[in-house]
Write a structure and sequence with these properties.
Helix content is 32%, strand content 21%. The chain is an alpha+beta fold. It has a two-stranded antiparallel ribbon with strand order 1-2. A hairpin with an 8-residue loop joins strand 1 and strand 2.
Length: 110
């Protein structure tokens, strides 16, 4: 599955702290700026989980620090046009990733 970096909030954790941690754990990148784009309910009526969607810019490469269950992940880099084509043709089906790309294209005004 192709998806944006993501992770679970620790109890009482600030979502920005979680986003910063997960970016580095899963990709090795640190960001000069992380900006909240929005939030979504994953399955209203079934659960109350809220996902916080962020944009990271000014990326600085480093070493990932993956947790158990994250080993074997691949880091893939695509242009925004490539990602949109992958969504259209069904290669990317992860809901949070599709919403994150929508937010980035339509709501992120740098």
């Amino acid at each position: 599955m192709i998806e944006l970096p993501a992770g679970k909030l620790d109890k009482g954790e600030d979502p920005l702290v979680c986003a910063t941690r997960e970016l580095e754990e899963e990709t090795g990148y640190k960001a000069k700026q992380i900006k909240k784009l929005g939030e979504i309910y994953t399955a209203p009526g079934y659960c109350t989980e809220i996902l916080h969607i962020y944009s990271a810019s000014g990326l600085i490469p480093g070493n990932h620090n993956r947790e158990e269950g994250e080993h074997g992940m691949e880091i893939l880099e695509y242009s925004l046009d490539e990602i949109e084509n992958m969504i259209r043709n069904g290669e990317i089906t992860d809901a949070k990733t599709i919403v994150g790309i929508y937010y980035l294209k339509n709501l992120d005004k740098h």
